């Protein structure tokens, strides 16, 4: 006869402990993983917002420089090139 080895030797109610861990710990671990992923996602979006704000300030600065040149928008766009 082949000797058998119990799955949880020496632990009373071992399989029940395993099932409780499976039912409660695994979902909590998945929830924690989702929370960490969500925090990372929103942090990356906030850095994108900062980049957009920086670019908007740069565009405003360039538009002010363009307006200080004394040229009109129509002259620069090529729509008013002196032809009637």
TrEMBL record:
Transmembrane feature ranges: 17-42
Chain positions covered by the region annotation Disordered: 59-84
Origin superkingdom: Archaea
UniProt keyword terms in alphabetical order: Membrane, Transmembrane, Transmembrane helix
Residue ranges, compositional bias (Basic and acidic residues): 59-78
Protein's name according to its UniProt entry: Preprotein translocase subunit TatA
Lineage: Archaea, Methanobacteriati, Methanobacteriota, Stenosarchaea group, Halobacteria
């Amino acid at each position: 006869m082949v000797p058998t080895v119990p799955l949880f030797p020496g632990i009373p109610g071992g399989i029940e402990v395993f099932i409780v861990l499976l039912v409660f710990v695994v979902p909590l671990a998945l929830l924690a993983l989702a929370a960490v992923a969500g925090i990372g996602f929103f942090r990356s979006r906030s850095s994108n917002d900062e980049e957009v704000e920086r670019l908007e300030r740069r565009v405003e600065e360039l538009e002010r420089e363009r307006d200080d040149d004394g040229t009109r928008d129509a002259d620069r766009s090529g729509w008013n090139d002196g032809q009637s």
